[in-house]
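Methods: example folding runs. The two proteins below were folded one after another, and each record is reproduced exactly as written to the output file, sequence line first and structure-token line second.
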Amino acid sequence: MEKNNHYKNLLGRLCKANNISPRRFRFEQIEEFVIIHIKNQLKEGVDLECFKILNLIHQTVLPLGIRFDQQLYLYPGGHRLDKVVIMFNKEDYVLLNKKLEEGDI
């Protein structure tokens, strides 16, 4: 999957174009899921770059009809956001990469 990870490359390029470090997110594959971790950098509140990355994911994935789940992780006590996780089924993520490779957008 790593050599044909067109979506990871696309997201990295979009982040660079928007002056966001591509190191702000991390891809991980666990069994039948592909997970994108987006870390919140602020001690209080949510940093704007975190929301910009989420917006880029929504703008690029939803028009292609690919399903994913989004989950917020809070620190204990629930007053501070730790990270946001976007989770794809591996089949959906492979379909996303196939659509990007073939230009089926």
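Second run, written to the same file directly after the first:
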Amino acid sequence: MKTAKQRIEPLIKVDLRVSAGKRPSGTEVMDPEPVGFIFGIGKTGLTPLERKIEGRYAEEQLSLEISKSAIPEFFGHIFPFPLRLKIALDPFYLNLKIVSVSPADAREVVRAMAEITACSGCDCGCGGHF
């Protein structure tokens, strides 16, 4: 019997490869970098990134034209993205590959929620202070 593929929905663990380029699928602006998170646990609802990948499956890819100034809001609490961009290209293509999608166990959910609320007001870009 064939098992159904897990789709991205709340409390699902998601692993992405994020890169950036001058064109869709390009990596000349930022080499692929892993990003892992539990979907849907942010304090202020879904981030723009989560809205873009909701309902998708492992191995799917997407490219989005985005400006550098939109990056902190786009990732929110998921990835304190310090703009590791090699050139001053604006806008650029943000390339996402969904590497894996799997159920998160209760400990992972609790740990992720604690990490989101742990930051006490620094200027780290984590999105955890308002």
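Comment on the second run: The beta strands are 12-21, 30-38, 61-66, 92-103.
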